[in-house]
Amino acid sequence: MPLTLHHMGFSQSERIIWLAEELGIDYKYVSHKRDPIFAPQSIKDLHPAGTAPVMEDDPSPVTDARVVLAESGAITDYIVAVHGNGRLAPTPKDGASYPNFLEWYHFANGSLQPTFLRLLMARSADPSSPFVARTLDKAMNQLDMLDARLAQTGAYLAGKELTVADIMIFFTLTTMRGFCPVDFDTEKHKHILAYLKRVSERPAYQKAMKICEGDDFKPLIGPKAELWPLMKKV
Ligand SMILES: N[C@@H](CCC(=O)N[C@@H](CS)C(=O)NCC(=O)O)C(=O)O
């Protein structure tokens, strides 16, 4: 089994385990514990980025040598292309779902996730700073856009089928909210809330989250977001 996927508890690497489960591909799973909330030495030893996820493919069918990647988007694109026969990633042949797919795929880690991270940092530095309110406004604007998109499709981000855009955004809408609580409005964000329920019922997602966080884990799919217990200790 050449593919090894490294997960660090309560982190963006849940996406990669879920991706592998949706694709039904073989992989070796390695779990890493946060130290106490940051990446442990075992993650830093794998890649200079020192962040999760990390993927090792040894030997890679592309290079015939060991490939190590540490960036969610890069790992996702590599796995889909090299081990997934291009599944879950629309192409120009798929017509209208292609530009929609591209926009929402990149929105997930290029806009929404950085906004939540900025909010987390701003609140930690000074919860009363005007920067917190401004960043929260930005988050709400992005969530309104997302809700409107999900009202349009009634299913997934690119259209009627799950794509890696959904796999990329789901962490920010769920696990990330345990680091940076953002409540969803039951009226204004009703399509997001319906989407969270729909996606969280997928067997591959449920299996991945059990692998990553254990049998008792409950994803943050409701309107109220609360800090994970590990954050309360910081
Ligand atoms: N842009 C990277 C970000 C990776 C990242 O920051 N991962 C976090 C976990 S959610 C991490 O490893 N944090 C621990 C640390 O920075 O020490 C990606 O999408 O993979």
From TrEMBL:
Residues 94-220 form the GST C-terminal domain. It comes from the Eukaryota. Pfam families: GST_C, GST_N_2. Residues 1-87 form the GST N-terminal domain. InterPro entries: Glutathione-S-Trfase_C-like, Glutathione-S-Trfase_C_sf, Glutathione_S-Trfase, Glutathione_S-Trfase_N, GST_C, Thioredoxin-like_sf. PANTHER family: GLUTATHIONE S-TRANSFERASE 1 (PTHR44051:SF9), GLUTATHIONE S-TRANSFERASE-RELATED (PTHR44051). This is Glutathione S-transferase 3.
